[in-house]
Write a structure and sequence with these properties.
Length: 108
């Protein structure tokens, strides 16, 4: 999962907001399948949304997992990866509840 740079909006579009470093627009969070590059989930968030907002991370992760067919989910090894700005205790707790294990590794 990752957040993307601010997507600017030239007018007050629904859901946009001013960003911390200036600008106005959206701050999307996306999840994709590493091996295929296919988008699995995403959320178009206001420009002032935090990178480490656990509720958004969990919502995007749940959307991503829902895209994987049930017939295949059990045979896959899933790796949930976020950069150091995105790792939260709540996200790790959610991953533990969902899978029974979760570890944190800082690789930036």
């Amino acid at each position: 999962m990752s957040t993307r740079a601010l997507i600017t909006a030239h007018s007050e579009k629904e859901g946009t907001a001013g960003a911390f470093k200036g600008g106005y627009g959206f701050h999307p969070m996306l999840a994709d399948a590493h091996e295929t590059g296919k988008a699995l989930g995403g959320e178009l968030r206001p420009g002032n949304a935090g990178t480490n907002t656990a509720a958004d991370q969990i919502a995007v992760a749940e959307h991503a997992l829902a895209q994987i067919p049930a017939a295949h989910i059990e045979e896959l090894t899933l790796l949930l990866r976020a950069d150091t700005a995105g790792v939260t205790h709540q996200l790790l707790a959610w991953a533990r509840e969902r899978t029974g294990s979760a570890t944190r590794s800082a690789t930036n």
